[in-house]
């Protein structure tokens, strides 16, 4: 790719992201005529119209959407290279890049990392907290050395080192009628407003299959894709939720946690880039997470 073509593609992506030539010019620190010229040359050289100019606001054509899909991966990979280069410049020891879904990255890893670093004080690490889908993309493109994510289909190749089985539990406001029981029967949940996980995400609704298989119908008041968000909604009186015990345990002072009377688990995969075997540092971190999850599982499920 020539430098000129690279600048054309950057201008194209900037216009797509901002929706206007003026905003793209500010983003790239160029003049509006310069952005317009880059886009025009790209269209002329490829013989493809990338924007519909019939309206005041530029609208990407179908061809532009196809090009954008490819460029997202290209520029994403370039950002990963920048992160790596910055890490090499600033780190004096070995750097490990970690990507984790919110439950692991926010509530579990901060407790596991001190023990990990105590064994290898020369280690330097970066931690990106992302959706499971983005964790798969980042690890699959070698943007991270180890990832913690729920299974996601159709995201490319990664190597699965192990699967951490995290139990699900019910979180409810203190004093809620459901909390009178030591274990909550799933069929009792249907009488209360439930905060569900959106079906459009990889995890889906962790208890929904049980409902459908047993002819039960729940009242779904709100949906979300984030366990911490579900806990916040429960805390504000919007209903009760079934979440992973790691997130539930982090909210134990604000909410009451109760196990279910049926087994329901969140299979969190520990993944590394395709064709790569987990190194000793990655294995040690995964083992520490396994131990922490086992302790939380025992505490809540006992």
Automatic annotation (TrEMBL):
<dbReference type="InterPro" id="IPR036390">
    <property type="entry name" value="WH_DNA-bd_sf"/>
</dbReference>
<dbReference type="GO" id="GO:0010628">
    <property type="term" value="P:positive regulation of gene expression"/>
</dbReference>
<dbReference type="InterPro" id="IPR005119">
    <property type="entry name" value="LysR_subst-bd"/>
</dbReference>
<dbReference type="InterPro" id="IPR000847">
    <property type="entry name" value="LysR_HTH_N"/>
</dbReference>
<protein>
    <submittedName>
        <fullName>LysR family transcriptional regulator</fullName>
    </submittedName>
</protein>
<dbReference type="Pfam" id="PF00126">
    <property type="entry name" value="HTH_1"/>
</dbReference>
<keyword id="KW-0805">Transcription regulation</keyword>
<dbReference type="GO" id="GO:0043565">
    <property type="term" value="F:sequence-specific DNA binding"/>
</dbReference>
<keyword id="KW-0804">Transcription</keyword>
<dbReference type="InterPro" id="IPR036388">
    <property type="entry name" value="WH-like_DNA-bd_sf"/>
</dbReference>
<keyword id="KW-0238">DNA-binding</keyword>
<feature type="domain" description="HTH lysR-type">
    <location>
        <begin position="1"/>
        <end position="61"/>
    </location>
</feature>
<comment type="similarity">
    <text>Belongs to the LysR transcriptional regulatory family.</text>
</comment>
<dbReference type="GO" id="GO:0003700">
    <property type="term" value="F:DNA-binding transcription factor activity"/>
</dbReference>
<dbReference type="Pfam" id="PF03466">
    <property type="entry name" value="LysR_substrate"/>
</dbReference>
């Amino acid at each position: 790719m020539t430098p000129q073509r690279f600048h054309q593609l950057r201008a194209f992506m900037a216009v797509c992201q901002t929706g206007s030539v003026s905003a793209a010019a500010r983003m790239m620190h160029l003049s509006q005529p310069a952005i317009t010229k880059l886009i025009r040359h790209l269209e002329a050289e490829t013989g493809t119209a990338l924007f519909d100019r019939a309206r005041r606001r530029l609208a990407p054509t179908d061809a532009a959407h196809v090009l954008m899909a490819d460029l997202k991966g290209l520029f994403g990979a370039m950002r990963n290279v920048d992160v790596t280069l910055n890490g090499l410049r600033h780190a004096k020891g070995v750097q490990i890049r970690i990507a984790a879904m919110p439950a692991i990255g926010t509530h579990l890893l901060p407790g596991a990392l001190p023990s990990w670093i105590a064994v290898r004080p020369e280690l330097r690490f970066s931690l990106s907290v992302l959706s499971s889908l983005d964790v798969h993309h980042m690890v699959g493109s070698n943007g991270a050395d180890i990832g913690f994510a729920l299974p996601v289909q159709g995201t490319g190749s990664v190597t699965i080192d192990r699967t951490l089985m995290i139990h699900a539990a019910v979180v409810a406001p203190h004093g809620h009628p459901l909390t009178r029981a030591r274990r909550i029967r799933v069929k009792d949940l249907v009488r209360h407003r439930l905060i569900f996980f959106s079906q459009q995400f990889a995890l889906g609704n962790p208890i929904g299959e049980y409902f459908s298989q047993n002819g039960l119908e729940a009242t779904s008041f709100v949906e979300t894709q984030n366990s911490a968000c579900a806990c916040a909604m429960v805390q504000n009186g919007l209903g009760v939720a079934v979440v992973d015990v790691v997130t539930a345990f982090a909210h134990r002072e604000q909410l009451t946690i109760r196990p279910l009377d049926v087994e329901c688990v969140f299979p969190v995969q520990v993944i590394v880039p395709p064709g790569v075997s987990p190194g000793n540092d990655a294995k040690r971190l995964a083992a520490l997470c396994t131990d922490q999850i086992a302790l939380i599982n025992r505490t809540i499920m006992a």
